[in-house]
Amino acid sequence: MILVVRGNEPDTLSSIRTAQLASLRALGRPPNSKDIDGYRLVAEDLWKVQHYKCCYCEQKIRKRFNDVEHYRPKASADRRPGCSMSHGYWWLAFTWENLLFACDACNRSAKNNKFPTARGTVTLQAENPPPGGERPLFIDPGAAINPVEHIEFVRQVVGSIGSPEYWWARPRNGSLIGDMTIDVCDLNHLELRELRNDYFVTTISPQVNALNASLASAQREAILRELDRALWMLNAKNPYVAFTYDALRSSISDLILQTAVQKSWPKPSQVGR
């Protein structure tokens, strides 16, 4: 998961928001999921601004069959452990800052209506703007917080002797919000671990080998050339950028780069989009 820069709200969203919210208010009851419709109008805008990736797992995905996702769930919300109130954020269902694009596995199978908040949080009530007194324990990739500062990827064996080695998502520096986000999005699902391993073998490892060979040659121009190729892998247009950042750093340390060419691995948020 990396930062998502949405850009300006599409003009089409404003008009549909006015009409749809008027209809929802006229219901005289809290809207259910089927009542809340029309936000998919901006699916293509979100899909493109996210470089055709899921906002959570960073897989490249198709627009069809995948979801316009609400950071704050639209119809009902599971706010545990913060509180037991379960009303959704229907009045934010058409708010550009609350919308993302996600794969069905992350959104429907994993996150669904989960929106964990801190104990003692003051839950946002209908028609009020966020965040109010809420303290979410779930990272919004479209907000100011940098997900890379809270989630890291570590290669390790988990389980009994002989278990396979995988790249696991872990809370960086014990981050609570990182830990909760990993759990909510199921970022350690077996399929994601397999996909990360495959990406490491087919894409990251060959470039690491090329950069290591240039470092062994001690030829500055060759090192910088291979480093540039490695840095391109941290461009937001590529899949698994957050994972790639940690895989590169664990394979070739900042100290080695600094000693050779006075460079270090930049956090994905610092890489041009």
Tags for this model:
273 residues; mainly alpha; 2 domains; two-stranded antiparallel sheet; 8 helices; 8% strand
Structure write-up:
The chain folds into 2 domains: about 10-135, no CATH class; about 190-273, no CATH class. The chain is built from 8 helices and 4 strands, in the order ααββαββααααα. It has helices at about 10-25, 45-50, 105-110, 175-185, 190-215, 220-230, 240-250, 255-260; strands at about 65-70, 100, 150-155, 165-170. A two-stranded antiparallel ribbon has the order 1-2. It has a two-stranded antiparallel sheet with strand order 3-4. The mean pLDDT is about 95.
Give a topology summary.
Layout: H1 11-25, H2 43-49, E1 67-70, E2 99-102, H3 104-111, E3 151-157, E4 165-171, H4 176-185, H5 190-217, H6 220-232, H7 241-251, H8 254-261
Helix pairs in contact: 5-6, 5-7
